[in-house]
Amino acid sequence: MNVVMIQERGVARPKIMNRVIFNIIIAVQFVSSVLISLEGQTVEDSQSEILWDTWGIPHIFARNDQDLFFGYGWAQMHSHGDLILELYGRARGRAAEYWGEKYLNSDRQIRTLGIPERALKWRQSQSPEFQKLSQAFVDGMNAYAKANPRNISGRVKNVLPVQVSDPSAHAQQAIHLTFIARGSMQNAGNWKEERGSNAWAIAPSRSASGNSLLLANPHLPWSDLFLFYEAQLTTPGVNAYGASLVGMPSLGIAFNDYLGWSHTVNTYDGADLYELTLREGGYDYNNKTVPFEIETQTIKIKLKDQTFREEKLKVKRSIHGPVVSEKKGKALAIRIAGLDQPGIDEQYWDMIRATNFEEFLVAQKRLQMPMFNTIYADREGHIMMLHGGQVPKRPTGDWKYWKGIIPGIDSSTLWTETHSYEDLPKVIDPPQGWVQNANDPPWTCTFPLMLNPDNFPDYMSPRGMALRPQRSVRMVAGDSSVTFDELKQYKLSTRMELADRILDDLEHAVQKYGNSKSKKAFEVLKNWDRNADAESRGAVLFAAWAFEMGSGMYRENWNSKRPRETPDGLKDPPEAVRVLLKVADRVRKDYGSLDVPWGKVYRLRYAGKDLPANGATGALGVFRVVSYKKDRRSKKYIGQSGDSYVAFIEFSDPVRAEALMTYGNSTQPHSSHRGDQLDLFSQKKFRPVWRDKAVIEANLEKKEVIRYSLSK
After folding, report:
1. How far apart are CA 134 and CA 344, in angstroms?
2. Which residue, among 154, 165, 144, has the nearest Cα to 98 in the 3D structure?
3. Does the pTM exceed 0.70?
4. Each residue's pLDDT tens digit, 96-111
């Protein structure tokens, strides 16, 4: 067996270290034993080349798809090994066994939803070709862990080796449990942080250069399974760049030389809670007592003294789905869309390889990803907004009805199918030349409106338009010739749409009902630039007033006839003045002055850094989204979530792109790339995307060439 790993730092000449070679031989021997059963043949001179740039982004070059996936698994374990192993351990429903009682509730949820068993079935349902790629991805992870044992925390080593079903289980944990069922499963997670996204696609008719433009901008929490990983994947026929959630084997937001797409969290309901009436021997259904399908599982729980105790978990399943709660003769069963769709990763692999709109749609129409809007643009000038996912075909009822608890007494409320691509709201190549989404329903993706919600089932999506999407539309619709640099400036906008909407009414209220103190406080707001930039003075006071007033402040609520001008006005002007006085006293007491700079109070603390923040919650109508949690001791607000991965793409020849990963591209404890891009975020800057090999090598931190032979 011939095995060599070459490491280069910067532009230094190759160096071969005996210890490294020894470790990689062990790793490849392990991989060989895994791959034999799949290959059944000799594979010679397999090679993955990883160029690590100075931002810790892996650029993976391979001669075939299997080597590419192997390299991608290796790279992810290098950058996020500890996190990935914890996420995979949780997705197995064995986290309490690995790390103690803290994870017991997580294990109960994972087991109740049947995620580990279903993940095995998903793996077996993949095409034979993609099974090989999935195996290669896992093999790359295990090879890295074998070759670099010191780089993996002892706490998570008991999860090794990674199993081929782990990525599928993790996908269900992240997408189906955490995103789709978040409001239904008990204790499914804390959803106070910002979980949303912005995305724009601009056609050549609206672009100053005549090239399509794409903005990708998810905002998720800056921790745990919500983190993104940025990479370039290159093999014959593929040169893709983008990001995926950590631990996923395919890029989820990406572009190549021909096209690109982003996702936004859509107004989508793919999970329902059914209330069942319990009877001796089962539950009422269609005037009969139907028995539950019951399975008893054993959960092992690691104790502080390193011994274990066991807990029996009784999993009950009704025709609606697994039971997640029982109380006073009633039970709640959950039904989640998309659990019978095992091809998420394979669909994304085909999207990455598409070279035109038609090929992209062939992959997209499979709807294996159960939720998310898709915002698309390509070099031929096509743009699209698709309200995507597996939307249940419900027999009756509107959005509000299905967001509640559904009676499960008979088959009249039970859905068994989901809508096809043809049924879903979508806008393709609108004459306006742009589409946007900022987590608003699909109806407002472009103006003048092109989608009529009356033409779709009432449960498809709600009606409404919050202030952040109104801000989004105000910017994109107001520019008939968008440049690449303007696209960046729009993304960086921290202007508060709420301030533009309501400050005139507050001024009138202060003049009529205020005293000298309230007038002095309003003078600060009047002189404020209405932004949430680090140096903005008045933003702290306004945000405090707005949060105290709450969403019930308006005289006129959102109106579908005036979607971009409502809500508006103050319902109770005297109360608005009273609240201004109250929060002014608090701001002055806590921070010393009413015009304290935003960045002095709102901070970015991550990986040992403490920097002035810019951006605010989308509830204030800010496009540059950051949500914060108050530190009670310092009374400052610390960024927790929001702008995660940001990318700007112009489909010129060659493609032009810039990007930023707010928290950096690694979470490994001693990595220099943990939080290394936070300074750019604080300074409102981005970094160029390097895709050309010569340019990458000019900005090289390290080069890894992993060569190995796999024999029968």
Report:
1. 12
2. 154
3. yes
4. 999 999 999 999 999 9
